[in-house]
Fold each of these.
Amino acid sequence: MSLNRRQFLILAGTAGGAGLAFLAHQALTAGSRSPSPVVATSPESPSLAETTQVVKTAIAPKGLFAPVRGDVRIVVISDLNSAYGSTDYEAEVHQAIAMIPDWQPDIVLAGGDMVAGQSPSLSTAEIQAMWAGFDRYIAAPLRQAKLPFGFTIGNHDASGAVGLQGGFLFANERDLAAAYWNDPRHDPRLPFVDRAKFPFYYTFQQQDIFYLVWDASTSQIPPDQLAWAERALASATAQGAKMRIAIGHLPLYAVAVGRDSAGEVLANAEQLGAMLEKYKVHTYISGHHHAYFPGHRGKLELLHTSALGSGPRPLLNSSLPPYKTLTVIDVDLGSELTLYTTYNMQTLQVVDHKTLPRLIVGPTGRVLRLDIQESDLTAAEQTLTYTPS
Ligand SMILES: [Zn+2]
């Protein structure tokens, strides 16, 4: 089907917004290449005659499946690093960074592990060389594309692990990460609300979405930081935004083989999840597990990213082979709905969510796939228990 923009507008007038939105959604979920452009009406517009049409276009790098752009488009990448001390990245990272501008996102988010530290043998010069490599291959190209970069610190960037004496075990790595990020030449172009503890924990707001980033580089978020997070989420700024998104390196619950133990997930997940839900956080985005799983627990959506760099892992409760991912989130601010288009960055195909497990049961709790509700679970699924990987 090949229609020009005018024909699409005529089609919009006759078929109505709902039909076209459905069409667009069908194109998106089918996983096939969609026609471009696609026109949809905004949810508020009852008819073409009364209101202006909102034109939404399917956009992606050439040759890839193109999702229809939302009011806000977010590209999410995570776990970029290679072996300890590495100053370069695997091919998929280079390819993704080159492609990102062609999705025309409003912002790029990263789930942490941007460099490969957390080894006591790395010298200051070696750690600085890693951040220089990160800047050269990742941050600088995104700055040149004028893309804001929101990120959370991972255990390999600047671990928050604390020793018996109460001090940071990787204090030097934390100092060097802070020095890199606070250098004005490395400005991530974020509209900060609170940057007092940047780059470890901070908030920013962009296009009516409030973002909270916390330091989940270890399983324990300190009480003073949690109190800060609660104040930030309760603030008039956060509550006045159309949507709230939280980002941290460790997830609330385990989803990946080899990451299903204490220390690899946040402690007190129930309490943290309840706090995020209380303040109407739409989605918590995490890295560290190196396995893609779009999930939810209650009303809180949980986007578990795979690694874009080395070492993708298999999911628990699944026989799928591991793969590297990049996720495009298209946000509809009116309905507060998000639509994920996740690419397997080794094949450049869109991940079909139906091939993923309907639920994942970890040692501290279970996560349902985004499209599955508790009432959808079979008797066997309801009683499914955790099996160590
Ligand atoms: Zn990690």
Note: The chain is about 25% helix and 20% strand.
Amino acid sequence: MPFAMLMDTAIDYPEIREQVTRLCAGFPGSYWRDLEARSAYPEAFVKALTESGYLAALIPEAFGGAGLPLRAAAVILETIHARGCSAAACHAQMYTMGTLLRHGSPSQKKRYLPAIAEGELRLQAFGVTEPDSGSDTLSLRTRAVRDGDHFVVTGQKIWTSRARYSDLLLLLVRTTPLEDCKKRSDGLTVLLVDLREAEGQGLEIRPIETMINHQTTELFIDGLKVPAENVIGEVGRGFRYILDGMNAERILLAGEALGDGRYFIERAVDYAKERKVFGRPIGQNQGIQFPLARARVHLDAADLVARQAAASFDAGEPCGPAANSAKLLTSEAAWAAAEACFQTFGGFAFAKDYDIERKWRECRLFQTAPVSTNMVLAYIAQTVLGLPRAY
Ligand SMILES: Cc1cc2nc3c(=O)[nH]c(=O)nc-3n(C[C@H](O)[C@H](O)[C@H](O)COP(=O)(O)OP(=O)(O)OC[C@H]3O[C@@H](n4cnc5c(N)ncnc54)[C@H](O)[C@@H]3O)c2cc1C
């Protein structure tokens, strides 16, 4: 295949790209700047995405969704980010819904999925991370004890994003104490918590101020009662269900990182052609050109790996190494593009009206969440290279 064709990475799902681009045109930089100044949630943007059906892209048609492959969902998120918008306020609905879809009971699916597809219910929050366990998920200490037809939950979560704007929360809890489990991954259970009933009844949600407008929170849980019928799948097998969703999450967020990278390159190239200093466009200087050209090459290469990961996922093949590689490569390529763009804009990169500093701050997150670069490297070292576990 000629090199040009191999590198022609922007051609699949052209209708989706075009329609999402049109939708995003209604949400310019001024919309996002205003939200951030007020630490506000992008209600209008999420409503538009929901009404257009994009947030239900992965919900099967039988439950009212579009039943599209994961690759199509990644293209939706990539386009949103490439157009200067952010899907962070609602992207989790795409992959948390997968846990319910794959492991929920028929009655749970019937009750929740059509309502999520319709936009009547939001499932945008998932609580896994805890203050003391961090990346070591299996050490989590939030405990759920069965009491008749309920579980009673006590513990704490951190970085539970969107909890104040979601109706439902997927909560990973320990139902069997670690010392009674054969394996550390046993004894964890996924509960579907109805936040509308839970808040004030054993659940307190406190926002965390961050360097980006992300609506992330801490959850303080003390005696929260969750009906036993809200267990997803089997009690004690929750970690496997969460793991199942992680590859999808990594591939989808790789799409967002790619979109950010494409945004930075497009903005920087336009600016480098227009901005004249010393009597010529700054883009004529190789000091400006080369970082942008290098970032573009790295983005295209990362894009190919992300497509490979999505293709494996959609074919039902094992895709852990590809999904993790895609996440690592896209987050680093996007960050290189962010840096090159920031430098291209000179002092104007710092001016809020240009949106570069906002996107630059937002883009940094991909190297930390949903999984940090070190943890991806540890995974590749162990599973691909067969090196001994580092922890
Ligand atoms: C804005 C934001 C939103 C988030 N949203 C959610 C959410 O909705 N739901 C949720 O459950 N979580 C969420 N998270 C949590 C996120 O997934 C974690 O921050 C992330 O997994 C890392 O955990 P930690 O911050 O405790 O870092 P730590 O685990 O304390 O790690 C700190 C550093 O040490 C490194 N490190 C740790 N152990 C090792 C090792 N063995 N080898 C090499 N390096 C190591 C890590 O890679 C990292 O760089 C969010 C985080 C942020 C910042």
Note: The longest helix spans residues 238-274.
